[in-house]
Amino acid sequence: MSTVEEKRESLNKYIKNIFIYYYMVKIAFWDNGLGERGTSVALYDYAHYNEVLLGNESIILYNNTHYSNKADAIKKFTDRFNVISVNNWSKVDTILSQEKCDIIYIIKAGDYDGQLSKVCKNVVHCVFNCNSPHGQVYASIAPWVNNNNGKYPYVPHIINLPNHTENFRKELNIPDNSCVFGRYGGYKQFDIPFVQKTVYAIAKANPHIYFLFMNTELFCNSLPNIIHLPMIIDLNIKTKFINTCDAMIWGRSDGEVYSLSQGEFSSKNKPILCTNIGYKGHVYKLGDKAIWYTNETDLSHIILSFDKDKMCKKDWNAYTDSTPEKVMKIFNDVFIQPCLTL
Q1: Which pTM was predicted?
Q2: What is the per-residue burial (b if ≥16 Cβ within 10 Å, else e) of 194-224?
Q3: Which residues contact 307 (CB under 8 A, 6 or more apart)?
Q4: Predicted pLDDT at 19
Q5: Element of type H or E holding 51
Q6: Of 250, 263, 282, 141, which is closest to residue 186 (Cα–Cα)?
Q7: What gap in Å lies between CA 134 and CA 39, rounded to an integer?
Q8: Domain-by-domain residue ranges, the chain?
Q9: In which element (H, E) is residue 44 found?
Q10: Nearest in space to 58 (alpha carbons), one of 71, 68, 44, 70
């Protein structure tokens, strides 16, 4: 091959690569239901930053009969995106064709469930396992997801709460010098019995220590310093909740894969009181950026000796790699670019 031909071929490859990288794609983002839990939060973030950072177009698809649907969460999506609901998967391909979508992003447990498009590229994002590879791209939310074992790429969730200094202490009559331990997440997933018992015992004996729970099932008799708040979708109010707390108290018996609630507390430099139980994702992710307890005695000592002024000066952020910019670069490399060359 002559030098001129080599240069021409090199230029053509360069132009092709530039075209592929900057070609705007339309992605449909599918979750079975739209609620307050991590998959829907993650889906919203990917769809939002797919437009804002990658310059693509996003639409949202979901099953309007799914048990996890929450009106406030659906409104958050409809206020931001073109949202289309169906009552079964069989209608999805018709919508994808009408909307001229290039890719459908599907977040799911990981097993093959028959939900694949025949009219556009499928990218599958596995939360719990990598047991059944399917679709054009198959990836997990973390490298430690069951049966990944380095066989598949991973795209982490985004952690990106607003920054402000508002809190609920005045509204809830919590003194500024009181220690507050807070928690939100799945309604029934603050469920370790000895943690519940410890919280109640400490709160009853120490009225100056507060426990603040959002979207958490009642687990003990009422006390003035154990405060329950309803589910919150608004991110500014989430930040306000976290700002009220000096630490997160975690107590989920089945563990975590990649916890958004832990990530949101951690990103605001709040230590997480945590134990090694169930799925080990939180153990791998938090490492020395958490305060670990093993039993009731440990947890009692940690809470009763907690020095809020000392703790706030340490670096507790274990999620510095979960910014929108860092995650969406991975999202583009793992999910979008391979689909443009297939």
Answers
A1: 0.88
A2: bbeebbbebbeeeeebbbbbbbbeebeeeee
A3: none
A4: 42
A5: helix 38-52
A6: 250
A7: 19
A8: 3-158+323-340, 179-311
A9: helix 38-52
A10: 44
- Between CA 210 and CA 223 the distance in angstroms is 10
User: How far is the C-alpha of 235 from the C-alpha of 279, rounded, in Å?
Assistant: 27
CA distance 204 to 302: 17
The three-state secondary structure class of 112 is: coil
Inter-residue contact 218 to 233 (CB < 8 Å): no
The CATH architecture that domain 3-158+323-340 belongs to is 3-Layer(aba) Sandwich (3.40)
How is residue 184 written in tokens? 């939100």
CA 299 – CA 296 distance, rounded (Å): 5
Q: Please give the biggest Cα pair distance in the chain.
A: 86
Burial of 273 per CB tally in 10 Å (0-12, 13-18, 19+): buried
Which class is 179-311 in CATH? alpha beta
Q: Do domains 3-158+323-340 and 179-311 have the same CATH topology?
A: yes
Successive 10-residue mean pLDDT values, the chain, 342 residues = 57 46 86 92 97 97 95 95 96 98 98 96 98 97 96 97 97 97 95 98 98 97 97 93 99 95 97 97 96 97 97 97 97 97 86
Amino acid in the structure at residue 23:
Y
